[in-house]
Write a structure and sequence with these properties.
TIM Barrel; 6-stranded parallel sheet; single chain; 2 domains; 6-stranded antiparallel sheet; globular; alpha/beta; Immunoglobulin-like; 29% helix; DUF4038 domain-containing protein
Amino acid sequence: MGYIRISDTKDYFIKDGKVFFYFADTCWSAFTNITIEEWNDYLNYRKMQGFNTIQIDVLPQWDRSTTDIYMDPFEVFPNGKWNFNKINEKYFERARNMVEMMIERNLIPALVILWANYVPDNWLSKMLAEKGVSHVIPRENLEEYLYYVINKFKDYNPIFIISGDTNFEGDGATEYYLKALEMAKKYAPNSLTTLHLCGGYADVPEEIINSPYYDFYMYQSCHFKDKMHWAYETALKFYNKKVKRPIVNGEPCYEGIGSIGNYNIYGRFTRNDVRKAVWQSLLSGAKAGVTYGAHGIWSWEKGLGEYSVSDYAAPYYWRDALVFPGVYDLSFAKWVFEKYELYDIEPANDLLINETQEIRVSKGRNKIVIYNPYNFNIRLRLDEDYEWEGIELIERKFFVPEVKKSEGETIIKMSPFNGDSLLIGLK
């Protein structure tokens, strides 16, 4: 199986000589929660839906659903703590077999090496330590663990997501992740590396930004309905970093998850919310791909017990979450990118006269792409003429928009559809 590399322009991926649009499903809890039979069904279905990548946490996900097949990755002391000196080979052999099943289907594993709860000096490890459930890997065991995990999976050319849901609240986190980046490149040079960060976070330490072992930016636009603007704002923060790299929104709002901490006010995220977050990301610099998550798939919910994190709202049974409709909105986004060859687009909201930043504009060499989250006139500062096409995104209906020019303004009139739309202008 070939491996992914970074384009010469440093803003998208190449695989087997062609542009590769990263299209990942989020299945963090795969190695602890999923039976081989379930894994087989899941992989077949996601492959049919067009996914090319699956994101998984190598170690147990701290907020996973209850499982009947759980296994610890290390020997367990009588007090419940892990003995980091003794790796459970059975755990990692099972994980390796599951990765082999992905490779058989030409699905790329994107493996998180150090979720935030296993690393010091970040919000999650601190919170769990206060609850007495800390599993931070001791510094003296870190390199042994990294060497083992990287070599266990390197033959499959995975993407190594070095961190999970992290921020940086001290030197310990920075040291752990710098070491992990360095070792991933040393022992698996064909594998790309990135960091998965907590929601809306972009303040990555300069030592990491400048690391030659850090291949692409991945951010999380979060699961707070009152913070959905982070989808485009965080993309722009990474777009404006001094070191240019491809950008992926690695965790848009999950379809079906409750707005964290206030779902009794805002409810659950719908496919429309997910689609909005993804298109706003793609047109704000995060154009290297998209990631999808279904509430019940990432945690792998099987109805075996009450879900432990009440802030999220209860997850759906995994087989129900597997068929959520939002998947097809994202696979359509991938189709549009490939059909119109949008890999050269760059954020261009300076062309927009409308006051709302929720409309996102991007411009390429011979095209302009606009995401309109509502149905109203779009006003642009354009000197050139374009032929315009429209796509209503709820039912994916194509239409020809009415366009007028007046005193240096191009006005794209409201469509007859009451929903969000994509407008594409071609020279």
